[in-house]
Amino acid sequence: MHARTLCEDGLVQPELEPFATRVALETGALEPERQVSERRLGEMAGLYAAPVATSSTILVYRVSTVPVPERSSDLLCCTTVIEPGLVDDEYFMTAGHYHAMRDRAETYLGLAGSGLVILADEAGRWRALPLRAGDLAYIPGGWAHRTVNAGDDQVRFLSTWIADAGHDYATIRARGFPVRVVRRAGEPAVVENAAFRR
Ligand code: S6P
Ligand code: ZN
After folding, report:
1. Which side of the chain, N or C, has fewer Cβ within a 10 Å radius?
2. Predicted model pTM
């Protein structure tokens, strides 16, 4: 547990200064921008049903983070911007993960675009939540999560989670999600993932 400093009078001594960050709604960028990572298609080989060239530099998504101490008393926030696109008939998506500390919850607030959050638990149950501007998706502990861009424009969203959660990508890479989101007759469809391993 992270101890707070107590003053002699018993009051909690704050450790951090309050601060403001601007979310540019029209781009998903943070102002000021401090920590940005980009996921390119080649790094996602094996996550899509269709083969992907590991050399592909096509940008799939970008994550901008507000850095804070990674402890249970703080909240991490970031924006994610997923480009529109398809790999064969499968929509562009995030890699997806469980939190390393499985009980850590998270919220996503949709800012733009037409997304779907795919969730799965370790028993193989799955759920799909809409993520458009104004949608708040609540991701309880124990649910792996992946966001899919099921539209023709960027999907942008803000996530907030308990800062010591950590990320377990390996389990998803090994097992996949029970479902995939594909384009059928021009519309998104959630279909069984034949490669899923419980
Ligand atoms: C973090 C949260 C999101 C994702 C981001 C990219 O816990 O769920 O900020 O990190 O959307 O997805 P991924 O699966 O590559 O981390
Ligand atoms: Zn997460």
Report:
1. N
2. 0.95
